[in-house]
Amino acid sequence: MPGFFITGTDTGVGKTRVAAALLQAYGRLGYRCVGMKPVAAGASLQDGVWRNEDVELLRQAGNVQASGECLNPYLFRAAIAPHIAAEHKGVNIELARIRAAYTHLTQLAEVVVVEGAGGLLVPLSPGRDMGDLAVALGLPLVLVVGMRLGCLNHALLTWEAIQARNLRLAGWVANRLDPSMAAYEENLATLVRRLPVPLLAELPHQAGMDAASMARLFAPKRLYAMLRQG
Ligand SMILES: Nc1ncnc2c1ncn2[C@@H]1O[C@H](COP(=O)(O)OP(=O)(O)O)[C@@H](O)[C@H]1O
Ligand SMILES: [Mg+2]
Q: Within the chain, how many helices (H) and strands (E) appear?
């Protein structure tokens, strides 16, 4: 089990931040690590090349070089739902192609951190969604909860979906998206009680926090345990 699949309660809740933090954290422990964004929607032209911000952040956070095709098999320019972007382009998002890219990355690195797009049930193609991709890759999940009003419902719905797919949740991260969330501690305690997996880290609200600083919020003991449990 050389990896994790990072999912979240929504889009924009901190998946990329957590993926980058985990890459840095395992890097600090001496592991060769690489990030993967199988499907990215939203790109801008930089020096004549279409680039996605998540892919670039993950590339920077890892310590192993790999081809763009492996790091990001599917890139769509429009920042819209992946299956719609794919349909517009006449592309079929194939789990087998993503799996081949992932398998290649597992030969280069000891830890592969895969970031989903949006939440767990985001569609990828007719009849397939992000959860199916996590199953196809055989990876345990890390759930990023964007701590704001409404997150309890989103987190618990995601937990139900994880169980329905027989996926394994390695742990969850509380990301303090809304710095003025009312009753933050009680919300946190509710999720600690209801999610029967470890709270891996609590990330503070801090714009521009770098991945190395976030990495220090994950206890090494926990990081080793996550790898052992596979
Ligand atoms: N704890 C936080 N404090 C401040 N800004 C945050 C925090 N978490 C996320 N953000 C910001 O919110 C946006 C979405 O975060 P990101 O990690 O890209 O989410 P996702 O990958 O789930 O879409 C980014 O601009 C990020 O910098
Ligand atoms: Mg992201």
A: 10, 12
Nearest-atom index, ligand 1, CA of 208: 27
Whether 66 lines ligand 1, by a CB cut-off of 6 Å, is no
Residue 180 has pLDDT above 80, yes or no: yes
> Strands 39-41 and 74-76, how do they pair?
parallel
Average pLDDT, the chain: 97
* Backbone dihedral angles phi then psi of residue 62, each to the nearest 5 degrees: -80, 175
The pLDDT-based confidence of 230 (bands split at 50, 70, 90) is: low
Report yes or no: 37 and 115 within 8 Å, Cβ to Cβ: yes
CA 176 to ligand 2 center in whole angstroms: 16
Q: Nearest residue CA, atom 5 of ligand 1?
A: 207
Identify the CATH number of the domain defined by range 3-229: 3.40.50.300
Domain boundary assignment for the chain: 3-229
Run of H or E residues at 123: strand 123-125
């946190």: which residue's tokens?
188
Atom of ligand 1 at shortest range from CA of 18? 17
Q: Which helix (H) or strand (E) holds 4?
A: strand 3-8
133-173 confidence digits (pLDDT tens): 999 999 999 999 999 999 999 999 999 999 999 999 999 99
Residue 37: active-site member: yes
Q: Among 17, 54, 176, 181, which residue has the most ligand 1 atoms within 8 Å of its CB, making it the best to mutate? A: 17
What band does 1 get if pLDDT is binned at 50, 70 and 90? low
Written as six digits, the tokens of 183 are: 């009753």
